[in-house]
Amino acid sequence: MKRNGKMNSTMSVQQIERGLSQRTKDKFQYGMAGFLIVTAVILAFISFIITLTVGAGVIAWGGLCMGTALTLIGGGMYFHNQLVTFETNTNKKMQEVTAQVDREISRMNEHPSRYSKDKPVKEEENYFNQEEIKEE
User: Between 20 and 30 A from 65 (CA), which of 5, 81, 115, 136?
Assistant: First the structure.
């Protein structure tokens, strides 16, 4: 990255995050979770091979790695599913609003005199309230 004609070798965290796609971030997160699980298993095997027992510290480290890895995987999946649900609900709502607008436009096209700019608008008329707009 160049700044004032000089090459800057350090990048801020925000610049790095902006450059990564969500898919890349998910791969990195799942890779880190897998790495934690593998290190816990390797440490347990090494401890068993050296001492023929697995000490409390190794078991604690294994539990910590497993808990962190499963939290990374479960949290990522949960938030991904919540995002998909949010997008689905938003798309449905936008389709409903679009259909509502289309109905209103077709209603205006069917009865142009009712919505004419030349016609004075009565104060009690509310074009956005469906109860007051009755089909003729």
Answer: 81
CA distances from 1 to 5, 24, 25 (A): 10, 21, 22
In a domain, 15, yes or no: no
Residues spanned by the domain of 61:
21-111
Specify if 69 maps to a domain: yes
Are 32 and 72 in contact by the 8 Å Cβ rule? The answer is yes
State pLDDT tens for residues 98-117.
999 888 888 887 776 666 66
pTM of the complete model: 0.52
Domain-located, residue 81: yes
Domain count, the chain: 1
Cα–Cα distance measured from residue 127 to residue 111, given in angstroms and rounded to the nearest whole number: 13
